[in-house]
Every structure is written in C-alpha cells, then in structure tokens.
Design goal:
7 helices; mainly alpha
Length: 152
C-alpha cells in the first residue's frame, strides 16, 4: 500500500510540474521543434531541469543498499540498441512532433476534457492494445507498427 501511495503521489507531483511548466500545451512542444520560425526554448529548460534532478537523485538513491519500499532496486538489465528500440523511438518522436503530446502531458491534459488530449490518449491506448495483441501472437511485424502509428 505504501508503494502504491508513493507512486500515486509521484504521479500527481509530475502532473503538477507538467501543468506549471506549460508542457501540457501542444503548442509549446511544436514551437520548440520550430527551429526556423517562432522557436520556444521553454521545453529545453524543462528537460535540462529534469535531467539535473534525475542525475543528482539517481546517484543519491543508488548509494543505498536497497530502496525504501522494496527489497531490491529494479533497474533495466538490457543495454543494447536494437531494431525495436530504434523503431519505437522514431514512432514516439514522430507522434510527439505531429501531435505536440507525449503520454505524460496527454494524460495530464485529459482533465481539461478538451478533444485533442482525449483523442490522443484514446489512440495511444488503442495502439498499445494492438501492440500487445500482435506481440502475444508472436507476430510483431512492420504492419503492426504501422497500424499502431496510424492509430496514434
């Protein structure tokens, strides 16, 4: 229960930070990507701030013998760059650049009940479901990735 409560609190804190920084506004993201027009560097400052907090926090936390609410650290085991990682990254970046949303801000923006975050989040969930279905059948193909990209 403590672990779930802490996760919920961290999610609320993250959502609050997204809202305060203006990162729930797709226009901020698309303006950040508009290098030769009305470029808005605010996303860069948010990213650098997040990286700095993570950099310091990670080093402090991993010096402990174990986390506060778990028996062991659960860190990724894989470090190789493979085709699914590259394709997934490209798909994520394409969707982010076109829609101006990535999953965190889109879910946070759903509280506004505006059409765009609801459509984006619904499409994202549909793409995730399609991926899970195709992967469970052992047929994760370029077709499945393309359909997921169209949905998102």
């Amino acid at each position: 229960m403590k672990e779930n409560a802490l996760s919920f609190f961290c999610g609320i804190l993250f959502a609050f930070g997204l809202g305060v920084s203006g990162m729930t506004q797709p226009g901020r993201v698309t303006a950040f990507l508009d290098f030769f027009g009305a470029w808005d560097p605010s996303l860069l400052f948010v990213m650098v701030g997040a990286i700095l907090v993570y950099f310091i926090g990670y080093r402090l936390v991993t010096k402990r013998s174990k986390p506060l609410l778990s028996e062991a650290f659960h860190l990724p085991k894989r470090s190789e760059v493979d085709r699914p990682l590259v394709l997934g990254s490209a798909l994520f970046g394409t969707g982010w650049g076109l829609a101006g949303f990535c999953p965190g801000p889109a879910l946070t923006s759903m509280i506004s009940l505006h059409r765009e975050p609801l459509i984006f989040s619904g499409s994202m969930l549909a793409g995730m479901l399609l991926f899970a279905i195709r992967k469970s059948r052992g047929k994760m193909t370029l077709f499945g990735i393309t359909i997921g990209m169209i949905l998102v």
